[in-house]
Amino acid sequence: MAEQKQIDGNVLAAKSLAQFGVRNMFGVVGIPVTSLATRAVSLGIRFIAFHNEQSAGYAASAYGYLTSSPGVFLTVSGPGCVHGLAGLSNAGINTWPTVMISGSCNQNDIGRGDFQELDQIEAVKPFTKFAVKAKHISEIPNCVAQVLDHAASGRPGGCYLDLPTDVLHQTVSPSEAETLLTEAKALAEKNKENRTTKLDASKIGQVVSLLRNAERPLIVVGKGAAYSKAEDQLKKLVETTGIPFLPTPMGKGLLPDDHHLAATAARSLAIGKCDVAVVIGARLNWLLHFGESPKWSEGVKFVLVDVSSEEIELRKPFVGLVGDAKQVLETLNKEIKDDPFCLGSTHPWVDAISKKSKENASKMEAQLAKEVVPFNFLTPMRIIRDAISEWGGSSAPVVVSEGANTMDVGRAVLVQREPRTRLDAGTWGTMGVGLGYCIAAAVAYPDRLVVAVEGDSGYGFSAMEVETLVRYQLAVVVIVFNNGGVYGGDRRSPEEINGPHKGDPAPTSFVPNAGYHTMMEAFGGKGYLVGTPDELKKALSESFSARKPTVINVVIDPYAGSESGRMQHKN
Question: Which protein family is it in (predicted)?
Fold first, then answer.
């Protein structure tokens, strides 16, 4: 009988990932993980190879959000791991399930200055829910199971698996490998069986009573509800009760932005006057002004729905419900069904929100109707909005929005009608996520078009990944708002232009009229340079129909933008 070929740590890690449901991976290969990526591909896992670990990490985090299953990315040791921390930390802040797997130096050489040596477990700790090192090949399957489980359980977040070089080179027999995989699977299933969440029935009744008796109730929905896929349950609650709703930026699309009960265009009124606010899958952080006056009405009673009891303890709402957004909404709907109520369109609160929304929308449309050339931000954004709305695909495109003015204006102008079709800088306001997010969306939703609307500064962080788009022929159209710098070109006053380096470009300036589209063309993709409405309309029509990697370089007046950081809501 022929002797069975031994299985090394690379193969066992790849088998473990496949067994526990990983279908796509992102990353940058090199010593000591190249073989792991190759083996994963041979086992049916798609590997998307990036130029930079940051972008790979951003892609994995967004993939975790879009699919509700952990996004996995692979890095080399030392600096590769450090670069990957950008994506891992972004996952943690946004509470998206993500796993970073890094190779590391030989365990016997730790402390001796080995190649790319770093105590990676210590390095990742501030950014992870859970981190583990496989110290022997026999530990690999269980370690893989643990990081995937921890990433998605409770409040999702980033986890880390360390695979030392010597462990990847260790071997076991095929039968030993199967035993290890079987044992790890059994243990993982047992852990899931022991994890149950039970809602507090008395609090459900309390919340329904608050809503029933409120004069000005409001439902706020965030990306946690989108992650939970709670759109059907949310629709039922909103339309049964007639309560206006307000989405956070990435909660947009859970219900259509143009829904008759949407309060987005009347945000200031909604949060400034509501007396009860049910916040579902969103945190009372800077994005929601910490739930404090003067933005929020004094004395508003918050009902906070969150998967994390720690979050509820931190915010101290009037009522806190620990649970998954979808589960909580289902329970609320059942409670209301027995004794329904509805505010109705003539209710003073609903009427006030409706009138303010229409008033502000009318003002915005008046601004958008002006055709300004050279382009400001509004004119091309309106053209992009219309092109997306008129797109004839069976599913709405995924919109990736990144930048300062570009993202701020896009949030107000672009319309989301389907859930999980908007990705932006998120809770951390992270710049550089754009191309990674585009790739994640294209991989997660291969039948959808992906449209990125990027500022030139945000685009520059990850622009080299346009080659990745071409290499994998992903249906991504990247629209760059090119205004010559961060917020625009040189905004300095005369008194600020002095000193020995006054001849240097301003800190906010880029090369004027940069040919971003030619970079895409260099790799075999399609590029457009546009500066008029007709040119932009033609480029959008052609690129949307082609569904091929494209960069549309939209030349913007460098003085059209302004410095932007925290979200400015004037409605």
Answer: Belongs to the TPP enzyme family.
